[in-house]
Amino acid sequence: MSRPAPTKARSDRPGAVTTIVVPTVGRESLVILLDRLAHQSLPVSSPVIVVDDRAAEKGGAVPAWFDELPYAVKLLVSGGRGPAAARNLGWRHARTPWVSFVDDDVVPAIDWYASLLADLEGLPADVHGSQGRLHVPLPAHRRPDDWERATAGLEDAPWITADLTYRRSALVGVGGFDERFPRAYREDVDLGLRITAAGGRIEWGQRTVEHPVRPVDGWVSVRRQSGNADDALMRRLHGADWRRRAQVPRGRFRRHAVTVGSAAVAALAAAHGRRRVAVPAALLSAALTAEFATARILPGPRSGPEVRRMVATSAAIPFAAVAHSMLGRVRHRHAAPWTGPPDLVLLDRDGTIVHDVPYNADPDAVHPFGSARDSLDRLRDNGIRVGVVTNQSGVGRGLISPAELDAVNQRVADLLGPFDVWCQCLHAPEDSCDCRKPSPQLVIEACDRLDVDPTRTVLVGDIGADLLAAQRAGARGVLVPTPETRPEEVTAAAHVRRDLGAVVDDLLGGHW
Questions:
Q1: Which positions are catalytic?
Q2: Tag placement on the chain: N or C end, fewer CB within 10 Å?
Q3: Is beta strand 107-108 parallel, antiparallel or unpaired with respect to 201-210?
């Protein structure tokens, strides 16, 4: 991607209200979007996160012109896992109260950022989202074709993330976007339903973006029928009336099902020589196909190429729609509600991330477990904060000094850090303090310092006291046993994993 020379439009206003998250697959339209933002009143320090969702071998290189932009840009790589995963990666790295999702193919109005701040200012606490207004430019010299009309339908669609800002706390509360939606389809509606079901409101703002119609080939309408698999997931997660609650038109699926069913009956009847059944069934299927094609042709430009495309695709769409719907129903028949990864993972120090050396006062004796560094980096790379909560009674017992403890902790941080929070109890057990695990105080303190809900927190430890501290704080505890872990602690633990790497696999997969 190349970019025109930037025009400086800096603002010295301190702080940032929102982080702008832009998922991209490397379209040239990203250049236009970022250049338009460069002409607006973003603070110099305003965070913009671009998430490259191309396959790993294609994406990840930082364009040189990012450094020329008059605002801060961070590039993350999601590896082709789809827009839901890309947006999740972006907002989890955000630390602002709001997160503004903008697609890479929209063009913000020249006053978009100022209007965004005005839309967010003073919103009541129960408003969890603010949706921008979308304009789709259509040709003035002719009627819009089928694809142009489909794109124009986005103008009135609620909750679409072409321009939608959410409170970060609301995203944390519901686990963000459901990554089982692999396409840019229904993942935004699913999130909107979960946000509103949790008591939040999503209001329309006054800011505007333009959504140009992308060039496509003639079979795009057939490929888009893969979204019927996502509709099957929506039904599984939200019930049969999800369309009504999400203000989504029912569409033509029932007619498509009759079209396909009639064609199947006609084929079977013909194969068995039952002409009286085959002919009416075939005529019904043909009539429905003709009606469908006519409904698509009449509002359009009615040119020869467009008519031929509508006829061909109208014959194929019902079969594609039904096939994808059936596959989706099978694939998602056991789908459970999405939780997403936690917002914070806390770890015991000794026996969990480094080998336990009793009352260690020697930094050179710090030896991490083999999977610790990679596991912690995977959490950080996914925008999940990590911290340490540890009992260090050696200080209270006079066996090590505070300075020696600090040196050992620094060595741990050098090898495995950085950590977002570090909380420790320095008392001896006989001091009867209220912070020593299994007391929940260290977990609560860590959550308070990072403004994280304990229910979105996981504590990983190697003994029962760690799990009990998590439970009392309202967090989830996971036990990673060592030879020193008592058998009864393993038996009593609700969640046991062989090592930290297995814990991270579960957390990133939304299983916790």
A1: 348, 350
A2: N
A3: antiparallel
* Pair 414, 374: CB distance under 8 Å: no
pLDDT digits (tens, 9 = 90+) for 447-486: 999 999 999 999 999 999 999 999 999 999 999 999 999 9
Structure tokens belonging to residue 474: 């309202």
- What are φ and ψ of residue 188, in 5° steps? -75, -40
Give the position of tokens 């969890």: 128
Give the list of residues 6+ apart from residue 321 with CB closer than 8 angstroms, or none.
Answer: 225, 228, 253, 256
Question: In terms of Cα–Cα distance, which of 433, 471, 473, 438 is closest to 452?
Answer: 473
* Domain ranges within the chain, ordered by starting residue: 18-215, 217-336, 344-508
Collapsed DSSP state (helix, strand, coil) of residue 492:
helix
Q: Is 344-508 a domain of CATH 3.90.245.10?
A: no
Task: Tell me which H or E stretch contains 501.
Answer: helix 500-508
- What confidence tens digit (pLDDT) does each residue in 30-43 have? 999 999 999 988 88
- The pTM of this model reads 0.90
Highest CATH level, class, for 18-215: alpha beta
Q: How far is residue 387's CA from residue 348's CA, in Å, rounded to a whole number?
A: 9
Q: How far apart are CA 3 and CA 168, in angstroms?
A: 31
Please name the residue that has the structure tokens 């633990």.
493
